[in-house]
Amino acid sequence: MESCSLVDTAGAAALCSTPGGRRRGRAGSAARFFNCPGSSREHGVSASYSIGRMLSGVRSAARRKLFRSEPEWMGVNWPDSTGHHWWTTLENNFVLEASEDEYSGVVVDADRLPADGAAFARSLAASLSYWQSVGKKGVWLKLPVDRSEFVPIAVKEGFKYHHAEEAYLMLTYWIPDEPSLLPANASHQVGVGGFVINDQMEVLVVQEKYRGWALDGVWKLPTGFIQESEEIYTGAIREVQEETGVDTEFVDVVAFR
């Protein structure tokens, strides 16, 4: 196992097998480290490193992972098999685990949220303070259904609803003191119809399975809606196949309206 780093708080002392962990640090510095005399196999800790060395490793191996690393925050840092460095909290007041997007924003890792509301509230407040201090802008917070109790906590911190799906709710937070540049949620559906002609110059038409009296007996082109992230031509081919069972080849866009 690679060496881990422990940043000193009262909780860190509990990891040591003896109550008198040896502290070391420069005079006047807030950084304190513990050398635990217990077995590294038992505690999963083999050495204490300086904060400079620790930060250097994090920056070089995981530049785009945003975790608080100041010494007054306590956690364990270890590299995984892919070379990424991860932080895990030993007390639930750590910065939320997140990645950076291309717009200097933050995308919180929905799979690594704290387990309870109190820990989430502390971590969220600390995270916003830290992200503001390092110049981040938009924050995307995806809360799965099984973490729905976190929603009022986030709203109280200033998060706003962005969109919801069956399995999650997306909230956003704009950090700078200026108008938000975060994109709004999608608000439109795109319909598509397939104008299909065979070798005999016959046009493929259908009748709606579910229709009101106004459409009774009316024949029309196969139509439907484009799915999320789907190309127009792909949607047209899919809708024709779903409604008629006919496989087609896209040629051109005939018209928009």
From TrEMBL:
Annotated Nudix hydrolase domain ranges read: 187-257
**Membrane-spanning regions, if any?**
none
List the InterPro entries: NUDIX_hydrolase-like_dom_sf (IPR015797), Nudix_hydrolase6-like (IPR003293), NUDIX_hydrolase_CS (IPR020084), NUDIX_hydrolase_dom (IPR000086), Pre-Nudix (IPR040618)
Q: Name one Pfam family in it.
A: NUDIX
GO MF, any single term: NADH pyrophosphatase activity
Q: Could you tell me the keywords of this UniProt record?
A: Hydrolase
Q: Which residues form a coiled coil?
A: none
Q: Which family does it belong to?
A: Belongs to the Nudix hydrolase family.
Query: PANTHER family, from UniProt?
Result: FI03680P, NUDIX HYDROLASE RELATED
Question: What is this protein's record name?
Answer: Nudix hydrolase domain-containing protein
Organism this protein belongs to = Triticum urartu
Tell me the classification of the organism that encodes this protein: Eukaryota, Viridiplantae, Streptophyta, Embryophyta, Tracheophyta
The gene designation is LOC125539473
